[in-house]
Structures are given as C-alpha cells and as structure tokens.
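Curious: can you check?
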Amino acid sequence: MLEAPQVPTEDDARRPADGPRVLIAVDETPTGRRTLASGLRHAGAAGAEVTVLHVVAPRRWRTARFGPVRAVPMHIGDPLESAVLRDARRLAFDHGICPRLELIAADDVDGTILGVARRIRAGTIVVGAGRPDGLAAPLGVCQGVLRRAPVPVVVVPG
C-alpha cells in the first residue's frame, strides 16, 4: 500500500526542536563580550541552538491615574539596531553558529532574561557577573537570574 508523503504542517513548526538551546544575555560592557565568547564556546561544544539577548532601557512608559509610572516591555523590530547584537552575530558566525538575536526594551532585566529563557525553552542561560554598583550588588543582574532560574546558569566572571 502506498503512503502519503510527510508534509510539514504549522503544528510541526510550533513543535520545539529536540536539540539543546542556550540563551546568552549580553550588554555593552567588556564583560558582555567575554560572556558572549564563553557562551558561544559552550554552545558550540554542546551543538546547541543559540539565542543572544540584549535588554536595553525602556522606550515607552505607562501612566495610571492613581498608580505608579511603569515601563512597557517591548520587542524592538530590528535586533541589528543594537551594535552589541551586530557584533554578537559576527562573532557567532566566526564560530560557525547562526544565532537568533533578540533586542528587548524593558526595565526588569533579570525578569526579561528568565521570560525569554522560558519562551525558547533554553536548557542553559549564560550571563556575566560584573560589579555595576560596587559592593552593594556584586553580581548585578546575575544574582536575580541565579535565584530564580529553573535551568542551569553559566556565570562568566567580569
């Protein structure tokens, strides 16, 4: 008996691939570049899909009559608008990796990193540990990600 050929459907496109995924969160500091290089080496060794995320300052604010002013998180249409992500793409291509780039404007950086990790079903999150506020916050954003991440977190020292 003849079988019909398997044709991919929209349901197949929504189904996640079986390979590992790595989320690399970068910023415009020298620590961000080291984080990217380390994350790309880690992903290359694991043969993982890579998503590089850059969270920038919010661009829109929501005001309420009696509530506080809040930032409106938003995806930026063109991730190559960010010099950091342009550099990340070039560096990833040098490692033989074709990364997915995400540029998001938000004020809750660690929450955004965790949200994107959940959405893409990342198996590993790579973040840098700098000292943005001196001794008051020795790990910065990294500390919030470490506390709440449901997956392993690779911390690249600054």
Notes: The chain has a mean pLDDT of 82. Helices lie at 10-14, 30-46, 83-94, 109-120, 141-148. The chain has five helices and eight strands. The two ends are 63 Å apart (CA to CA).
